[in-house]
Amino acid sequence: MALTTALALLASAQVATAHFGIEYPTWRDNTLGSASTSNYSQWEYPCAGVPGDLGNVTDWPLDGGSLVLDLHHEWTYIFVNLGLGENVANFNYSLTDPFLNSTGNGTLCIPKVTLPANLPIQDGSLASIQVVTLGEKGQSLYNCADIRFRQNATVLSGDACKTSEGVSAAAIEIGGTKTAGSTVVGVNVGVLAIVAALTGLFVFGLSV
Ligand SMILES: [Cu+2]
């Protein structure tokens, strides 16, 4: 084939394999590949240049909901943050303490992301979730999803929360802090370990 065609294919292949997507809750907008608006860039803090008023709002349980990511890198560190209010640009609540280390390309479903205690939210409260992935040089990618906390919202279950074969995530141990799941383990166990680690941290936080 012509060199230009080969280069175009190579370029589109790189776009297709680069970066990450949020599958659930629905992200503010598609920032991946050719479907993306040219103004979007996942390198851009805090939300890849996507405004928070596009109207893609997903109902999420008051005590935390599911998160499904479409990962395209061999591995990455993952941080999930929360900002309260409408059209959020300030994500000051960490939902991944400790943060996560994912391995493998594909879908990662975290069945339930636990929220900090005493979060000032109620039925109908608007918020946004920010997902940050971090590479070995500190390079960061950003995407956001807008949510509405709802009493009757539920977490994903069954087929809606499936992690791809070969994809796993583990909570990262920092400074000797002992957390569950600090080593990379199998898919389901790994995901459970995340929830366990977050729950453990929550309990620990209450006891001090
Ligand atoms: Cu990338």
TrEMBL record:
Membrane-protein topology:
Lipid-anchor; GPI-anchor
Question: What CDD domains does the database record attribute to this sequence?
Answer: LPMO_auxiliary-like
Report if keyword Cell membrane is assigned. yes
Give the range the annotation lists for the signal sequence: 1-18
Q: Which residues cross the membrane?
A: 185-206
Alphabetically ordered keywords of this record:
Cell membrane, Glycoprotein, GPI-anchor, Lipoprotein, Membrane, Signal, Transmembrane, Transmembrane helix
The answer to whether the entry has keyword Cell membrane is yes
Where's it found, cell-wise?
Answer: Cell membrane
Domain Copper acquisition factor BIM1-like, by residue range, is 18-165
Pfam families documented for this protein: BIM1-like_dom
Q: What is this protein called?
A: Copper acquisition factor BIM1-like domain-containing protein
State the organism named in the record.
Podospora pseudopauciseta
